[in-house]
Amino acid sequence: MTRNEHHDGGTRRGRRRLAAAVLLCCLVSIPAVAAPQRIASLSLCADQLLLSLVDRRRIVSVTRFASAPSISGVADAIAGIPRNRGSAEDILPLGPDLIVAGEYTQPSTKALFRKLGIPLLEISVATDFDGVRKNIRRIATAAGAQAKGDRMIETLNSRLAAAAGSAGPAPSLLFYRLGGYSQGRHTLMDAIIRHAGFVNHAARALPGVGRVSLESVVVTPPDVIVLGSGHGPRSSRAAEYLSHPAFQRLRSEIPSITLPDRLWICGLPSSVDAVERLADFRRSLTPAPRKPRASTP
Q1: DSSP state of 75
Q2: DSSP classification of residue 261
Q3: pLDDT digits (tens, 9 = 90+) for 175-226
Q4: Can 39-161 and 168-284 be said to share one CATH topology?
Q5: How many whole angstroms separate alpha carbon 168 and alpha carbon 152?
Q6: What are the boundaries of each domain within the chain?
Q7: Whole-number Å distance between alpha carbons of 52 and 74
Q8: Fold observed for domain 39-161
Q9: Which of 2, 35, 68, 220 has the lowest tally of Cβ within 10 angstroms?
Q10: For the stretch 2-35, what's the b/e string if a residue is b when 16 or more beta carbons lie within 10 angstroms of its beta carbon?
Q11: Distance of CA 69 to the CA centre of its chain
């Protein structure tokens, strides 16, 4: 190799090293996208997921429903966080850099935030545990908490696997609430019931949330009854189903328990608590057959 060839080769190597160093400097100088630090929630379900995923100091507002222990699992963890009524007037003065809304948040409010250029994440109502996982991932990604979200899903999966219903005939379960309301197919409660090893009695007639007549419950009763804990004022009309003598008589003849509303109203990691409670309840049942009833109210 001549002196000139050696010089040219060294020059080329030097240029490559210089180009690599410049590229590295450019990459280092590109600022990482900062995780949002002022997050507002317009959904009770988002309230609870956010408080599980991010430091509460990054949350500038939660819904007023978050303070109700009957439907919220974070009522004792939101002291000092401003509550909102779902309006833009409550949120805009807080200067949020991310707003998490629900499927049923007022469309005009969501449209205003989008028009103003404020990052808006809309989560759907979870009707099964895949929906719960999806909402965890979406909020965790938007809030810069992917690793914590992944760990949360791993824990959810392991608890669901451990709580899965045992083999054998599945008893029929009716989830019954004030006013005769129940949860049929395509609802989170249906997924909870099935995962705990029961058949959802209401799924035969209901494609979603709806009323199950007291007559049909008494004439064709389930194997077990699970009552919602209820919340808010109870009108005499809403309570009459549960206080009716025929229903009270039925409850005295078949097993029943109460399931807190906060465990199933939102699709959350804590929804597995409902699965575990129902799975424990199933294991406690005696296999004695129930005598058929033919009476009506």
Answers
A1: T
A2: G
A3: 988 778 899 999 999 999 999 999 999 998 889 999 888 888 889 999 999 9
A4: yes
A5: 31
A6: 39-161, 168-284
A7: 9
A8: Rossmann fold (3.40.50)
A9: 2
A10: eeeeeeeeeeeeeeeeeeeeeeeeeeeeeeeeee
A11: 16
